[in-house]
Fold this protein.
Amino acid sequence: MADILSVEGLKAYYQASYYGVSREVRAVDDITMSIGQSEVYGIAGESSSGKTSFIKVLAAAIRPPLRVVAGSATYHFKGGNIDVTKATPAEIEAVRWRSLSYIMQGSMSVLNPLRKVGRIFEDFASRPMGLSGSAFRQRVVEHLERLKLNPQILNAYPHELSGGMRQRVTIGLATVCQPQFMIADEPTTALDVVVQKDVLALIKNLQRQMDSSIVFVTHDMAVHANIADRIGIIYAGRLVEEAPTHQIFTSPKHPYTAHLVASLPRIGDRTQRPALDGRPPNLADPPKGCRFHPRCPLAIDKCRSDVPPLETVAAGHRTACWRSADVVPLVPAHLAEVMQ
């Protein structure tokens, strides 16, 4: 399977100086990974782990104080390659929405409350699609029908729609140009579980129809279990584990991943969840060695002094842990299978 995205040694820091005091937050620190054609790649990690900063770089939404200080993020689109960390505004404009799109977390942060949905579609997609008037409207109507939305919503204001319908409209905006790559930033977080299931199915169906790739970001491991082909676990700005979804749930090789999987609630299971002590490190002054070692029950002296490399431990499975062979899943195998 050919790669559509290659990330090499990416470092993106928040750098600011106020009143003569300089501060640097290492939000994305030396990430190397790739995403294949037609793949759904999940990114998981707790709040402040660097997930959002990472996808900002992937979305070419790099604004001060966030700066790329090293590495690259190169898309291999059908029209040619583009490294978004070095591309000019004109080069980014040429691929935005046409080849690279973004499904945002909150629909009301995307939809202008003062404009009807039809006008919002024009604002987003008319220029990238090179269509206008009745031809553009017909294309949008056809796309809405694929989303199981009544074309009459084009005449509605966002506040007149339910939360689920607004999120479908947001997905429609991101997919109407049939991009080759989509970034989904927690698109189901604000939805109830029934609507969430429908939205996940919608995204998956659209991805298959368009034969596109998706980076799907959420802290909810249950959502990843339902949509992702592979999952990358980010902790304190670094990729600490990456594997096919099934292996992440049944055979994690990093203690942090094992705790994430164990945190999921399960029907009928009344046992107490294993607690993870401490809190995420300060990325302005991260700990030496493995950044997880202050909270890790398996930590040894080497973990406190040496940074573990991201190494292959099984087919398609990489982890950055000196004691990966000693990691024991915190969820019994039969329960891990049920969770999927």
